[in-house]
Design brief:
The protein is of the alpha+beta class and 380 residues long. Helices cover 37% and strands 13% of the residues.
């Protein structure tokens, strides 16, 4: 009608989207069960929180637990939420390099030694428990609880926090497998000339043509299941399902200090600590173009207690190094291991595609109209 303001058009699709959003909020916020607190998620679902922090690339247990709850238990969505939140944070400083020799182990497993130098520490693990579902689980009595954090149950306490030199020396824990093999000159050298600084892939977002530090960064932030799949697929393709030597090495779960350098004093202030999983994998070099008198050692490190991921990284580190230039396996792994890209592409399949599909249907119909006698499956 003349003189009346035009009303904004609301499509039925927009109404449906808003209704779907309200349904998600209603299910999340108004479920009749008791809401999960952050302490419950961090305590009862700690391994999933560790996985979300690792794949999200941010050490913040509260943020990971909150994202996991908001995603209703979808670890991929939770990691995506953490990454999005991480991008909104300012970068206030760059931490000092921490020597992994300072790692205080909560768990140390060396499968290649019956009695390794130092100690085997089983720690907290389900490796030796039967995979049987407990259907009559009841709450433990208060007397059964040790009220210390699991991380505090250590044979050797961590060093006291405070200012110290940035070039801290190794702690009291035994040498790693590669160090023991290096002492006997049984390991090929993988050090880069000039000892370049590690590449920060977050600020230099390049995927291919990267050095080892960037590759390990990408693998540390990749999706755990994708890494395991790539490693397992390689073994199947190479027929190495039962290698005599290969893949085994050492696994450590422990705590590493986080320090920030002081530009005035030259020292470092310890601002916290992170829990990490570290793995080394040994590979028997046996090709004609390799030094068959030595082994190669792969390395993996990631946030939290995430042993499958660290082991997969260490094995893929060796596989990619030996395969470099021989096939497209490195490109396949580095392009597809990040769950954000793969799952984002898959999720978009559910979004509207009616325009492109209608165009394809019209094209097919036009071709049929031009060639009404063309048999199905025949090409002109």
């Amino acid at each position: 009608m003349a003189g009346e303001p035009l009303m904004a058009y609301r499509s039925p699709g927009l109404d449906a989207i808003e209704a779907a959003t309200r349904l998600v909020a209603r299910r999340h916020d108004h479920d009749p069960s008791q809401p999960l607190g952050l302490d419950q998620v961090k305590g009862r679902l700690r391994l999933m929180v560790d996985q979300v922090m690792s794949e999200g690339g941010l050490w913040d247990e509260d943020t990971a637990a909150r994202a996991f709850g908001q995603a209703e238990g979808d670890s991929v969505e939770a990691a995506h939420l953490v990454r999005t939140y991480r991008l909104s944070l300012p970068q206030l400083a760059t931490t000092a390099v921490t020597d992994v020799a300072e790692l205080v182990p909560l768990r140390r497993i060396v499968p290649v030694y019956r009695t390794p130098p130092g100690r085997q520490i089983l720690g907290q693990t389900r490796d030796y428990l039967p995979r049987l579902l407990r259907t009559n689980e009841t709450a433990a009595s208060d007397e059964d609880h040790d009220h210390r954090r699991p991380d505090d149950m250590l044979a050797t306490p961590p060093a006291a926090p405070g200012p110290r030199a940035c070039d801290t020396s190794a702690g009291p824990w035994p040498e790693r497998i590669h160090e023991l093999l290096e002492a006997r000159d049984l390991v090929v050298s993988r050090s880069a000339p000039g000892d370049p600084d590690p590449v920060d892939v977050a600020s230099e977002p390049r995927i291919l043509d990267q050095d080892r530090s960037a590759r390990l960064y990408l693998l540390a932030r990749a999706e755990t299941a994708a890494l395991v799949l790539h490693w397992y697929t390689h073994l199947l393709n190479e027929g190495q399902m039962s290698p005599a030597v290969g893949g085994h090495g050492e696994v450590r779960v422990g705590r590493l200090p986080v320090r920030v350098p002081n530009p005035l004093t030259g020292g470092c202030a310890e601002v916290g600590e992170v829990r990490v999983t570290e793995a080394e994998a040994i590979e028997n070099l046996d090709r004609h173009d390799e030094d068959t008198t030595r082994f190669d050692v792969g390395y993996g490190l990631c946030f939290g207690q995430n042993e499958r991921k660290a082991l997969a990284i260490s094995n893929l580190d060796i596989i990619l190094e030996r395969d470099r230039g021989r096939s497209e396996f490195e490109q396949l792994v580095l392009r597809t291991a990040d769950g954000m890209d793969a799952n984002g592409l898959l999720e978009h399949v559910k979004l509207p595609h009616y325009v492109t599909f209608r165009a394809a249907v019209d094209t097919k119909a036009e071709l049929r109209a031009r060639n009404p006698h063309t048999d199905t499956g025949e090409a002109e």
